[in-house]
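Hi support team,

I've been running sequence recovery on a batch of backbones for a student project. Most finish fine, but this one hangs at about 90% for roughly twenty minutes before it completes. I'm not sure whether the input is malformed or the queue is just slow. I've pasted the structure tokens below so you can try to reproduce it. Let me know if you need the job ID as well.

Thanks,
M.K.
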């Protein structure tokens, strides 16, 4: 997903100037990084407010149109009002196509409903991590990383090194570190006997061949 937004250079700085900008529907911000000096900027509040609701806006290389010049940037930080739906400030970092970046990428969990620990054993998925710190070139930055739970049973976990990371993307790990991403646990109040009954019921369920299952439907059509 390519996300673009507009920004303008900001000349006046200070608390009073920022307050006036906010009253005018603008968000004061800063653009920094690279070999260029930091540049104070201002962004339309409504546009930024709605884009902050997009998951991809927080984990993608963005296109900033700064007074007609396009810049590749990352959202690095933003501040919200304590109780109003108002963005107070935003920080953006320039990126270079040939320099690797560190970024936190959201995790999307798939096949949780068919995981043995959920479908057969009545367990629930416990998310230990919801995002992963990665390093990669800007062009390789994924919007999200999938965590496939299809083979996980109760009491078992999936770790960072077991994830299928996109080409060119590396997880940022300390030496010998391999943290748990998610695990399947037994809900409180569930006994081992309950789990055994669930497994036996699933194993005993007759498997109906596709041809046999389709036969009644075909007979109904003839009638």
């Amino acid at each position: 997903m390519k996300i673009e937004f507009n920004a303008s250079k900001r000349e006046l700085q200070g608390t009073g100037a920022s307050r006036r900008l906010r009253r005018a529907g603008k968000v004061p911000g800063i653009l920094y990084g690279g070999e260029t000096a930091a540049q104070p900027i201002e962004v339309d509040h409504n546009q930024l407010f709605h884009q902050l609701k997009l998951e991809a806006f927080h984990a993608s290389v963005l296109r900033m149109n700064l007074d007609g010049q396009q810049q590749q940037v990352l959202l690095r930080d933003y501040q919200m009002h304590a109780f109003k739906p108002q963005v107070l400030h935003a920080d953006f970092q320039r990126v270079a196509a040939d320099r690797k970046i560190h970024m936190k990428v959201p995790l999307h969990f798939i096949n949780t409903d068919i995981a043995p620990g959920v479908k057969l054993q009545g367990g629930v998925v416990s998310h230990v991590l919801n995002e992963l710190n990665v390093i990669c070139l800007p062009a390789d930055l994924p919007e999200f990383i999938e965590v496939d739970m299809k083979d996980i049973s109760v009491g078992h976990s999936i770790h960072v090194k077991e994830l299928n990371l996109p080409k060119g993307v590396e997880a940022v790990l300390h030496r010998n570190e391999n943290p748990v991403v998610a695990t399947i646990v037994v809900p409180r109040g569930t006994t081992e006997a309950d789990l055994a009954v669930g497994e036996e019921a699933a194993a005993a369920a007759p498997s109906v061949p596709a041809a046999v299952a389709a036969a009644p439907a075909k007979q109904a059509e003839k009638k």
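--
Follow-up from support: It reproduced on our side and the slowdown came from queue contention, not your input. Residues 56 and 143 are 6 Å apart (CA to CA). No action needed from you.
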